Amino acid sequence: MMANKWWQEAVVYQVYPRSFQDSDGDGMGDIPGIIQRLPYLKKLGVDVIWLSPVYKSPNADNGYDISDYQAIQPAFGTMADMKQLFAKAHELGLKIMMDLVVNHTSDEHEWFQQSRQSKDNPYRDFYIWRDPVDGHEPNNWASDFGGPAWAFDEQTGQYYLHIFSKKQPDLNWENPKLRQAIYDMMNWWLEQGVDGFRMDVINLISKAMQFPDDPSVDFGKHSSSMEMVANGPRVHKFLREMNEQVLSKADIITVGETPGVTPADAIKYTGFDAHELQMVFQFEHTVIDDSKDGLGKWSDERFALTDLKRVLSKWQVELDGKAWNSLYWNNHDRPRVVSRFGDDRPEYRELSAKMLGTVLHFMQGTPYIYQGEEIGMTNIAYDKITDYQDIDTLNAYQDLVVDQKLVSPEQMMTYVYHSSRDNARTPMQWDATTQAGFTTGTPWLKVNENYPQINVAKAVDDSNSISYYYQRLIALRHELSIMTTGHYELLEPDDTEVYEYKRVTDDEELLVIANFTNHNVQRDFVVPAGATQVISNYEDDAGNMLRPYEAKVYQYRK
Ligand code: GLC
To answer: Does the residue 38 lie in any domain?
Structure first.
């Protein structure tokens, strides 16, 4: 077992800058808005703030399409604002982790503008260009946002690869000059004061350069070649090099977003002696309610608790002692957890949000909280598809409903309500004033109408709120070392209603019990004599009777 590192005891809070806090009335969150809210995050008790991209971008994918890595998105502020954010955060003892999007850039990045000029441009090999094959795309790869992953560029008569939108050409990591440019840029950010990197789809950076066809592609079903491209032949070489040239030089926190990884893959990236990354975001628990008809996340299936337990337990057990888990329920790409794995109806929303917080925060790993999760923000259901802004949602609608006519508009809206990325992206609900206190102008994405009931001001006034409960969970992580170090043991794997697990060290244990239903259930777990209750979302303890969404944790010596 490795020695404890600060990032293993830390709690991370993700800010989606566009939707967090607007300070100038343009309807878009910004960096001064984040600075204004730092005391709130300090009070919550988190250690690290992960910022989704704030770089200059034409916003085809809300900043995940970067046109200048060393400039700030004007709507978000200036480089001076960014430096101010580092300074103010550091004054409060908060660290800032930036999103690093280096699998691709925007097509408006200077490198790509150069690259597309001519086949002998010095930047040509910064991207992946191929000749047509029989007048068509070089292979059948599908973009994660729909359609082929190759776009034809008239000027030079070749295709370029884009695993995401056409406006997000993939970088060519085979080119040492490109790699050096990325490392230089990362080192520059370290000099500016950044404390870590969350690396966007980092396991896609190494492509199989023979470009074999993807046997799983079905354009009729809006499939994606993302997993085909994942964990490519030279990815570990590239990450080790990045570690050597950048990451190992500073005491920072790193987490890679890695679709399609298994625990064995994760150990290769994050094993305690791998010299690559510290953590990965695995995707397995986020796909347990995927479509049974092969439409990926476009589904309205309800998850099964036994699947959730199976997947999370596998990660807990297989990484234990070898690598470190990231723990997350949701982020800017995933629906709101209280709507997805809990119950967002008014009578159960707070109870189930606290229950879910308990289940996640008591696991081994570093917890990540997504903005608004701590007040139990819910999914959104706009009446019209035109109210949605997310490129992924709009493309899927166009593809499945309009072009393929595979899904009816009504059915698709139920899928959108269940899975759209805009569920997580509605503006942060700060108070009960107009636009939830997010902006004095017109928000870029409509505020959820439930803001008068669900907002930060209300949560702060109520000592029984989800927010105070999260504060307690975060404080406990800093107080109880067993939350960091304990081994995880799943109890009753086949129970379809209750999640029970233990954390175990040589001399003590935690018992975590959570009812995932909205009714009373009786269970025969045994709480050892002398145990103390560490936390619970009910005021009293009804013993073996678990009330709707009840969660509780006991601690005892062995
Ligand atoms: C990651 C991001 C997502 C983005 C995609 C392409 O999955 O989290 O928001 O669309 O990468 O950059």
So the answer is: yes
